[in-house]
C-alpha cells in the first residue's frame, strides 16, 4: 500500500489531535453527492490530508494568507523533485554539523529566507527554506516582526527530519489537481456550492487580551473579522454547502462569554476537549475546551 500523505509542516493550532471529532462531522454522503472540498485557512492541512487520503473528489480548493506557506504547497504539487533535492542538500549540510555550525547555518538560512520573502519570491528555494526553518526552529512556530521578517529562533532538536522524501512524494501526488490560492478566505466564494464540504479553521480568538494567538501572519484576526467570517459561513451554508468550523471556547476563561454561541446561532456549537499550550489557562499545557461549529 502506498504511503498516506500527512502534513509536511508543523503548524500552530494543528488539528491532528481532534481529527476524530472533526471526522464525525464530515458530510454523511461525502465522496458521493458531496464531492468537492474547500479549506480556506489551510495552515498545516491536517484535515485536508485526511480528506485527500480517504475520498476521491471532483475538485479541491485550499487557501491561506501566508504567501510562503502557499508557495510551499504549490512547489510540493508542481516541483517535488526540485524541493526534495534542495532539502536533501540542506539536510546533508546541517545534520552532521556541530552545534556552533548548525547555529550559523540556521541563521544564514533565515536571513536568506527573509531576503527572498521581502521580494515576494515564489521559487522552490523559498519553499525549501520554509520547510527547513519549520523543522529546525523553536517549536515549529511561524512568527514575523513588524517589518514582516520571520524571527523565530533556532530550536534544539537533535535529529530533525528535514527532507522526508517519501511523505513529500505522497503529498505531491495527493495535491495533483488541487486549486491552491494565496489570499483571503473570501476568495473561496465562487468555488463553494451545494456539493462542497467546507472546513474553516481561522486564527483562534484569543482567550484573554494577552494570549496572542492571532499572529501567524501580519494581519490580525480580531472580533470584527470573526463576525465577518461567521456571516460568510452563514452565506455558504444557505447556498447548501456543508460547513464545519473550529475556534477557541471563550468559556475556558469567562463562563459568561457567549460570543460564538450568539455568532453561530444558526449552527450547532459543540464543545470538545483538546490538549493545548495556553498560557492563560493554568500554567503551560492543559486540557481546554474548543468549539466545533457544525450543522444544526
Ligand atoms: C488555525 S490556523 C489553521 C491550522 C490548520 N487547520 C492545521 O491543522 O494546521 C489559521 C490559518 O489561517 C491563516 N489566515 C489568517 N487570516 C486569513 C485570512 N483572512 N484568509 C485566509 N487565511 C488566513 C493563517 O495564516 C493560518 O495558517
Average pLDDT, to the nearest integer? 92
Count of helix runs: 9
**Class of the largest domain, according to the CATH hierarchy?**
Alpha Beta
> Which strand order does the major sheet show?
3-2-1-4-5-7-6
List bound small molecules: S-adenosylmethionine
SSE pattern, N- to C-terminal: HEHEHHHHHEEHEHEE
**CATH H level, superfamily name of the largest domain:** Vaccinia Virus protein VP39
Q: Work out the oligomeric state of the chains in this entry.
A: single chain
| CATH architectural type of the largest domain | 3-Layer(aba) Sandwich
Strand percentage lies at 15-25%
Q: In one word, what is the shape?
A: globular
Class per helix and strand makeup? alpha/beta
- Low-pLDDT parts are 211-218
Could you say what the CATH topology of the largest domain is called? Answer: Rossmann fold
Number of E-type strands: 7
Main beta-sheet annotation: 7 strands, mixed
Question: Share of helix among residues?
Answer: 25-40%
User: How widely separated are the two ends?
Assistant: 38 Å
What is the count of distinct domains? 2
Q: Nearest-angstrom radius of gyration?
A: 19 Å
